[in-house]
């Protein structure tokens, strides 16, 4: 096997097996630091050995076994005298299992541990993206628009708090699930978004492993809470977004925006399931939450056979409703895009410019301004906005799209 084939196999294994390996080690050793470091060492060993020895028949089992050995080696090196009994139990696999929660799934246990309410929301998200999603610290820092050093410290403190507070590694009981699920949904949504359009320049522009895992875990939570509107809304939102993934990236590796996508390439089954969930929530008569409104917006988009058939007035009305629930600058930015279709680019540009103080470091803000300025014939200013968007964008497909649009200006 050559080095290229081995690297590709390791990349696939990392996408498919990272969460499983970390979750398995966390369950056995009860320590996130040990689990993460041993998993990383196992993958590093694969980088050294697989090119020479070949990819094992079951990469996940090989990585889990190797990681377990690495964890045991670390425990042996670091154990103190009063930890000897605990060490012996760990080395012989005689660790009493945690009591099962409402569902028995290692990765779901890991998510609920990372999303414990004792941690701040941003910390929960960062920890889950690292421990469950396998994202690097630079990738997460770009997603959060924070410094890498600050994010690294946040993750380190979170793992220490979980250990010191003896936060259990388990899914909560059925009675406790409703109060814990909102934080988990926020995490899963960000994991899905990272997969749908990755922030890192050195990763695949679209990571189906992350979107598929986010959808899988959201389905599990929906099975637990079938009457929770926001769980259903998030699942519908993910399905309707994932349905467009086959048309999202061109053969040349460039981002394809919604108005240019081949709608015949969209996944009709996912769209049908997403629409059914949206209709069920509308029929319930209960006031929708954030995810339900976002799902409804996507339902309007995916109902149109052509971009010219899009009901922009309905989309704008839904954004108006969403802004009342979530007055974030990113929601306001997305609302301005719909506003441009109804009231024109000049009105939308004024709305976008009011967001500069809050979104100056966000590439989509500058990309939106660049497009509106282009539509207004202000090519010099549009080019400058494209330059800023390209500078801030991390996704290779998005950078290629923005570069082409900039170069089309006179």
From TrEMBL:
RNA polymerase sigma-70 region domain residues: 20-81
Keyword terms: Sigma factor, Transcription, Transcription regulation
Residues annotated as domain DUF6596: 180-280
GO biological process terms held by the UniProt record: DNA-templated transcription initiation
GO molecular function terms noted in the UniProt entry: DNA binding; sigma factor activity
Highest taxon above the source species: Bacteria
Domain RNA polymerase sigma factor 70 region 4 type: 111-162
Family annotation (PANTHER family): BLL6612 PROTEIN, BLL6612 PROTEIN-RELATED
Family, as annotated: Belongs to the sigma-70 factor family. ECF subfamily.
Protein name: RNA polymerase ECF family sigma subunit
Organism: Thermomonospora umbrina
């Amino acid at each position: 096997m050559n080095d290229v084939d081995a690297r590709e196999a390791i990349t696939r294994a990392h996408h498919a097996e990272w969460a499983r390996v970390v979750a398995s080690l966390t369950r056995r050793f009860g320590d996130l630091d040990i689990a993460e470091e041993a998993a990383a060492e196992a993958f590093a060993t694969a980088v050294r050995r697989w090119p020479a020895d070949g990819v094992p028949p079951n990469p996940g089992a090989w990585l889990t076994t190797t990681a377990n050995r690495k964890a045991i080696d670390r425990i042996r090196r670091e154990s103190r005298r009063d930890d000897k009994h605990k060490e012996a139990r760990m080395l012989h696999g005689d660790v009493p299992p945690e009591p099962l929660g409402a569902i028995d799934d290692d990765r779901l246990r890991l998510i609920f541990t990372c999303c414990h309410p004792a941690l701040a929301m941003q910390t929960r998200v960062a920890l889950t993206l690292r421990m469950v999603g396998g994202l690097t610290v630079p990738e997460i820092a770009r997603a959060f628009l924070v410094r890498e050093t600050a994010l690294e410290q946040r993750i380190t403190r979170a793992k220490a708090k979980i250990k010191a507070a003896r936060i259990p590694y388990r899914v909560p009981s059925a009675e406790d699930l409703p109060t814990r699920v909102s934080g988990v949904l926020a995490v899963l949504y960000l994991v899905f978004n990272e997969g749908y359009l990755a922030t890192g320049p050195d990763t695949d522009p679209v990571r189906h492993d992350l979107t598929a895992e986010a959808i899988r875990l959201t389905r599990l939570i929906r099975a637990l809470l079938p009457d929770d509107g926001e769980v259903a809304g998030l699942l519908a939102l993910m399905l309707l977004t994932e349905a467009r993934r086959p048309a999202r990236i061109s053969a040349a590796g460039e981002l394809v925006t919604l108005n240019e996508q081949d709608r015949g390439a969209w996944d009709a089954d996912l769209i049908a399931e997403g629409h059914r969930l949206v209709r069920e929530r509308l029929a319930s008569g209960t006031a929708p939450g954030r995810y339900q409104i976002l799902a409804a917006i996507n339902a309007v988009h995916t109902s149109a056979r052509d971009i010219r058939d899009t009901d922009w007035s309905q989309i704008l009305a839904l954004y108006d409703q969403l802004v009342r629930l979530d007055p974030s600058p990113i929601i306001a930015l997305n609302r301005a895009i719909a506003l441009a279709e109804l009231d024109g680019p000049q009105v939308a540009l004024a709305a976008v410019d009011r967001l500069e103080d809050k979104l100056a470091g966000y590439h989509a803000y500058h990309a939106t301004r660049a497009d509106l300025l282009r539509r207004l014939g202000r090519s010099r200013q549009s080019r400058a906005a494209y330059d800023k968007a390209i500078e801030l964008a991390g996704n290779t497909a998005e950078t290629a799209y923005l570069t082409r649009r900039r170069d089309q200006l006179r």
